[in-house]
Each structure stands twice: as structure tokens, then as C-alpha cells.
Write a structure and sequence with these properties.
The chain has 157 residues and is α+β, with helices and mostly antiparallel strands. The chain contains four helices and seven strands. β3 and β4 form a beta hairpin. The protein is globular and about 60 Å long. One of its GO terms (biological process) is trans-translation-dependent protein tagging. GO terms for molecular function: RNA binding. It is found in: Cytoplasm. Keywords: Cytoplasm, RNA-binding.
């Protein structure tokens, strides 16, 4: 019996700041429509998703301001680094996301870009609510205490 290889996701870009600035709600995995040079550039792992945002005015989800640098070997066939890119989601998922945005005042934040087990580029997006300054301080306190607690337990035991 042949064992199935389990390959970890290759994370290309991670938006760590989003987990601090927002309370993350429901998370979705979306495909992303890319050109060939964009995929090659992503495989080299130099993309940035930190200042990106998602919008859906025409009924389809589009990610804006994601930086995928030009692929150096592609000369004149290269892509524009910050062009809007279409996200591939089911219509029900898009409707669910935008109901939350319209009704509850939530926002849609890209969390990371990665390659899945089949080698396809995916974007992890989340419905999120913005944190206030005092919420951010509470989150930092909780994180510091968890780190100190782990350190104390490790030193004692």
C-alpha cells in the first residue's frame, strides 16, 4: 500500500499585522487569477500582502494593492506589480462575505498567499472587525502573559 505524501503549504506572503489590527472572524480560501510571470515570481517568494484589501463592487471579489514583483527573466512579457487581481470564490461565499460587510460593518482582509498541495496559488481571506487602541493593548498584554507563563513553566519543569 503506497502512502500518500503530505506536503506542507509553502507560504509566500503573510499579513501578520492583520491579526493584530483586526479581530479575525470567518476565514475563506480563495484561488487567485494570475499570469504566468506572476506565478514564477510568487514561487521565488517575494510577494507582499500587508497593505492589500479586498473589494467586490461588481459581484466578483478583487484583491487590490498586492505587490508581486516583476519576474526578472520575463523581459517585455512581464506583469504590472500592483495590478488588481480577481479572486476565485463561489457565488454563495461572495454573497456571505458582502452581507457581513454591508450589514455588520466588517471588512475583508487578506491574511496570506500560499501554494496548496496541488501547487496552486491561493489567498486566505478573512472577515474581520477593526480593533480599537485599547483592544490592541489588551491583546498585547494577553500575548506577553502567555509567553511569560510558558517561560515559567519551562524553567520550573
Amino acid at each position: 500500500m503506497a502512502e500518500k505524501k503530505t506536503q506542507d503549504r509553502k507560504v509566500v506572503a503573510d499579513n501578520r499585522r492583520a491579526r493584530f489590527d483586526f479581530e479575525i472572524g470567518e476565514v475563506f480560501e480563495a484561488g487567485i487569477a494570475l499570469s504566468g510571470t506572476e506565478v514564477k515570481s510568487l514561487r521565488s517568494g517575494r510577494a507582499t500582502v500587508a497593505e492589500s484589501y479586498v473589494s467586490a463592487k461588481t459581484g466578483e471579489a478583487i484583491i487590490y494593492n498586492t505587490f508581486i514583483p516583476e519576474y526578472l527573466q520575463a523581459n517585455r512579457f512581464n506583469h504590472e506589480p500592483r495590478r488588481p487581481r480577481k479572486l476565485l470564490l463561489h457565488k454563495r461565499q461572495i454573497a456571505k462575505i458582502w452581507q457581513a460587510v454591508e450589514r455588520e460593518g466588517m471588512t475583508v482582509v487578506p491574511l496570506r498567499i500560499y501554494f496548496n498541495e496541488q501547487g496552486r496559488a491561493k489567498v486566505e481571506i478573512a472577515i474581520a472587525r477593526g480593533r480599537k487602541a485599547h483592544d490592541k493593548r489588551e491583546a498585547l498584554k494577553a500575548k506577553d502573559w502567555a509567553r511569560d507563563k510558558q517561560r515559567l513553566l519551562r524553567d520550573r519543569g
